Automatic annotation (TrEMBL):
It comes from Drosophila suzukii. Keywords: Membrane, Metal-binding, Zinc. This is Lipopolysaccharide-induced tumor necrosis factor-alpha factor-like. GO terms for cellular component: late endosome membrane; lysosomal membrane. Belongs to the CDIP1/LITAF family. GO terms for molecular function: zinc ion binding. It is found in: Endosome membrane; Late endosome membrane; Lysosome membrane.
Length: 122
């Protein structure tokens, strides 16, 4: 009775022996000091904390850390307060929100180059 082999007997003669394992192979020398690569340091500026008064901030345009100039501009809150005062009968008093800084937005600009830094909304 013949046994079934997954390959023919003719192929057994054509198979090669595995390669010789001798110690003549060259391996890298792990005792040598490896070069140390440093990651670049990224310097982040502190976040600009703006308020209703001039404050220290980094200009996004020129990169200078200086005190900002502040200009007050009417906002939606200013207009709504004026409308509310007018509807409640204070027609002569409806301009008060336009005269007080606490009812307006503070627009901060760079004192060096005049670039826009940010807005503080009350």
């Amino acid at each position: 009775m013949e046994k079934n082999f997954p390959y023919d007997r003719q192929q057994t003669h054509s198979l090669q022996a595995p390669p010789c394992y001798d110690n003549t192979q060259v391996y890298p020398n792990f005792n040598q000091p490896q070069p140390i690569l440093q990651q670049p340091q990224i310097m982040q500026a502190p976040p600009n904390v703006l308020g209703g008064v001039p404050s220290m901030a980094t200009c996004p345009s020129c990169g200078v850390w200086r005190q900002t100039k502040v200009e007050f501009e009417p906002s939606t809150k200013t207009h709504l307060l004026a409308l509310l005062i007018c509807m409640l009968g204070g027609i002569g008093c409806c301009c008060i929100p336009y005269c007080t800084e606490s009812c307006q937005s503070a627009k901060h600009t760079c004192s060096s180059c005049g670039a826009y830094v940010g807005t503080y909304k009350n």
